[in-house]
């Protein structure tokens, strides 16, 4: 498969990474997944992410992964929305194979490809990895830079090199804050230009830093917390993109306790507990080595959520 000739799309707005719901027998609950995807899109997100870390992708079998992507493809095709699929793993050959298979799923608009973990390659090795994948992928890549999960990160120089690579649309920047590399990246990355249909999008990948990242030039976010109260996260992102600082800041401040509570235990265990309490998924079950959410973390998350003062935005 040679790379697509299609122009790189703008990656802009809020993308909701979906959990993978399990039923009482531990099987993937496809109906619940479709419902989660549809709700996230009706609530104003630009798209959804299947098979992210939030989806426990590393604990799904190959056939479960395909079922999940197929279900999300159906919903996104129906609603004309973007679908980003987590495809990354820690070896280049398998990552290329996974990307090539996306060809069978026309609703997929981009991949989310993590920096190879465990192997500890050099920065040059990581750049070469993404270039090799981008050259063979039928869809543009969003690089997932998350050093606290992968033990290897990309500095701004390496990311700007990737920004100039064909078929790389952006980066999900999750460096546990806004560091100087992120600021250098934001100031050096090419803004989206509708005339040339080119650009490189920096997406906030750390939930507490969505709004400050957008005010510094990020074009959106991929944030697990937005699986709860999606419309409020959409409002925050849209206010940021339209430079409505005061309104956006209100959402940012009021969503922060919820976001923090959702990450009190490894994602997505608290998120699943809230979704289950809302009746949106049948069980809060997660697969090992994750453990179900503790009652205390679930209680604190419910409390953080009800403390919100900003009115809920109307659903579109
Ligand atoms: O699945 C994702 O995409 C995300 N995963 C991160 C994580 O689990 O570390 C968090 C982020 O909000 C989105």
TrEMBL record:
One Pfam family matching this protein: DHDPS
Which residues of the sequence carry a binding annotation for pyruvate?
A: 54, 222
What gene does the UniProt entry assign to this protein?
A: dapA
Catalysed reaction(s) here are: L-aspartate 4-semialdehyde + pyruvate = (2S,4S)-4-hydroxy-2,3,4,5-tetrahydrodipicolinate + H2O + H(+)
The protein's matches in InterPro entries, at most eight in alphabetical order, are given as: Aldolase_TIM (IPR013785), DapA (IPR005263), DapA-like (IPR002220), Schiff_base-form_aldolases_AS (IPR020625)
Q: Which compartment or compartments is the protein found in?
A: Cytoplasm
- Zinc-finger as a keyword? no
What's the stated role of this polypeptide? Catalyzes the condensation of (S)-aspartate-beta-semialdehyde [(S)-ASA] and pyruvate to 4-hydroxy-tetrahydrodipicolinate (HTPA).
Family label? Belongs to the DapA family.
Q: What is this protein called?
A: 4-hydroxy-tetrahydrodipicolinate synthase
**What general EC class does the enzyme of this chain belong to?**
lyase
Annotated positions for site Part of a proton relay during catalysis: 53, 118
Active site: residue positions: 144 (proton donor/acceptor), 172 (schiff-base intermediate with substrate)
Main localization is cytoplasm
GO molecular-function annotation terms?
4-hydroxy-tetrahydrodipicolinate synthase activity
The organism that produces this protein has a lineage beginning with: Bacteria, Bacillati, Actinomycetota, Actinomycetes, Pseudonocardiales
